[in-house]
Every structure is written in C-alpha cells, then in structure tokens.
Design brief:
The protein is of the alpha/beta class. Helix content is 34%, strand content 12%. It has twelve helices and nine strands. Strands 6-5-4-3-2-1-7-8-9 form a nine-stranded mixed β-sheet. Strand 5 (175-181), helix 7 and strand 6 form a beta-alpha-beta unit. Helix 2 (61-71) packs parallel to helix 3 (92-101). The radius of gyration is 21 Å and the shape is globular.
C-alpha cells in the first residue's frame, strides 16, 4: 500500500514539475494549508486578524476526511494552521492520526499558550511530524509588545515543560522548531535568543521572516525589516503551482496570504480539489504571473513576499529551476530572446 502511494506521489510530482510555466497544471498540489480553526486567543501586532471579517469557526472532521480521501497518495505535506491557534481544535489528534495513516506529513505551528502538560504529552505521542513553537522575544516587555494578550512567563514555562517531557519520553515525537519572528521590535534580541535556546539538543532554533500579508496588516512597515538581499525581479510565484489553502468552512483560496477569503476558487463541500486547482480563476492568476502582470491580480497587487523568497525556503524550488532551464535554452542554445517576461523587460 505504501509503495503504491509512493509511486503515485512520484508520478504526481513529475506531472506537476512538467506543468511549470503553464496555466494548466497536470499534477495535484503537493502542499496544503488547512485552517482547522480561525479562533485565536491573542491579538499579535504582526497578524492581520484585526482586518479579518470572516466568520469564526472550526473545520468539522467529516470535511477534513473528504480532503484526505481525495488527496491521499498525492499531497506530501499539510500545514494544520492558518489564521487561528490549532490547539483550540477539539479533534486535532484525530486529524493528525488520519494524516499519518495516509502517509501525509503534518506540520503544526502554535503560539504555545495552550501547550499545557496534557497537550504536550498528546502531541509528543501523536503522529505529528513537525511542531513549530513561536517565542518572539527574550524579555517580557519585548515579547508582550508583539504577542499581545500572551504572558511571557506562561509561554516560556510551557516550552520548557514541553522540552522536559520530550526528554522523559526519550526525545520521541515530532521534529521541534523554535522560531522568533523578525521585527524591528525584537531584532536586538536575535543573537541572545539563539544563544539561550540552542543549548537544548534536537531543537531547531531560528528566525522567521515577517510578511506584510499582502498589505493586510495596518502600519506593518513600521516594524518590517527590509533585507539587503531582496530580489529586484519578480518571477512567477511558486505557490500557484505547488499548494492551495483551505479555510475552515471548506472554501478554497489560491494563496496563504488570502486571510480574508477574497479570491475563492470553490468549496470542498461541493467541488473537488482537482477541479479548483485548474479553475478559471486559478488559470487566470497563473497566466498573469507568467506574463509579468502580477500587479493586475488584486490578491498579488500589494504583496512583497516575492522579494524575500530564498531558494532554500521553497522545497522543492520548482519554478526557479524550470524557469532558468527554459530561459537558458533560448538564450544560450537558440541565441535569441524568448517570449518570457524577463526577455520582454530587457
């Protein structure tokens, strides 16, 4: 059974790879962001929740099962979070087990406030593959300026207790990441943060780039760190050829920056993922990106995330590889400009 799934998944990724730079994808998304809930107990200054007008709710288990039934043997990773705190979901462990049973790797990011002793043990003994813990500061003042509504002491105690519990279980369980979000508020603490937490074995400690959520966070520019290595030329976005995002009520959006559900591709309750993957709207967005007209797509008009994309953050970097191979073929072998947006700009 596992061998058949592996072959099916490999075949899908070959089809997906061969469809790059085309508006129709022959494959199936290999990554999914599934919003188990958009409930949250914090009001972080880096989050667009204050601008979110969608209803608050939780995804029911039957809907999640429908997603898995269609995606098993095709999708590789599922991120079990989006605009809410996933530990609020009452059937989280059943959902993780369902993915594990179908050989789908799961990633979960939490603000840690609900990670008590009971939840810690449950996650460590579940089939979860990766757990991301968020701790955006090394002092109470800095942390609580960013994570509004959270307690620095409670969050830190929860992390320490979780790591101790993992040690008791023989470091059994998911791979653990501890991230600090890069902002101007806490940038003076990055080195101190790494020094403090890297002493724990098997804990991956690092920083995470702050997104502006396609212009969805008011005054984000005041805390956004602008990196010197930003890209100056916008290539088509990998996300449109590799992943989709599913909201808690079953509606599907093309990008994980569409926090308000403004560009709806369809609804899992009545449509298949495959049909939405190549819907008229999705094909139009891809074609605009291929023509270098990202600014004409409302969802992409104010997005600056493409500037910070690094190849190491796009597993696997399908678009850059295919893009430059085809471009090089035209320029080096045929010795002429091709019809790509790069050549049109030069």
């Amino acid at each position: 059974m596992k061998i058949n799934r592996s072959i099916r998944r490999l075949n899908n990724e070959i089809l997906l790879f061969s469809s790059q730079l085309k508006d129709i994808s022959k494959g199936y998304p290999v990554f999914m962001n599934i919003e188990l809930t958009n409930r949250c107990n914090l009001n972080c200054v880096t989050c667009p929740r204050q601008s979110m007008t969608r209803k608050i709710g939780d995804m029911n288990l039957e809907l999640f099962e429908k997603i898995i039934n269609e995606s098993a043997g095709l999708v590789r990773h599922i991120r079990l979070h989006f605009m809410g705190e996933p530990l609020f979901h009452g059937e989280l462990l059943k959902i993780i087990d369902l993915c594990s049973t179908n050989s789908i790797r799961t990633i979960l990011s939490t603000n840690v406030t609900l990670l008590d002793e009971t939840m810690s043990k449950r996650l460590l003994t579940s089939g979860l593959n990766q757990l991301v813990l968020c701790m955006d500061g090394t002092t109470k003042d800095t942390y609580e300026k960013i994570r509004v509504g959270a307690s620095f002491e409670v969050t830190k105690d929860n992390i320490l207790r979780f790591l101790k519990k993992r040690e008791e279980l023989g470091r059994f369980g998911p791979q653990i990441f501890l991230n600090i979000l890069e902002t101007k508020i806490n940038q003076h603490q990055f080195l101190e943060f790494k020094k403090e937490w890297e002493k724990f074995e098997d804990l991956v400690v690092g920083t995470k780039l702050l997104t502006d959520w396609a212009g969805g966070v008011p005054n984000i520019e005041s805390i956004l760190i602008k990196h010197k290595d930003a890209q100056s030329v916008q290539i088509p976005c990998d996300i449109l050829w590799t992943e989709i995002t599913i909201l808690w009520d079953g509606r599907v959006v093309p990008c994980c920056r569409d926090f308000n559900g403004t560009t709806i591709l369809g609804d899992i309750n009545r449509d298949s993922i495959r049909s939405m993957w190549n819907s008229k709207t999705m094909r139009w967005i891809r074609s605009q990106h291929l023509r270098g007209r990202q600014s004409e797509v409302p969802l992409c008009t104010n997005c600056i995330d493409w500037k910070w994309y690094r190849l190491s953050s796009l597993p696997p970097p399908y678009m850059p590889i295919v893009w430059w191979l085809r471009h090089a073929k035209n320029i080096i072998i045929k010795r002429k400009k091709c019809n790509c947006f790069w050549c049109k700009r030069t």
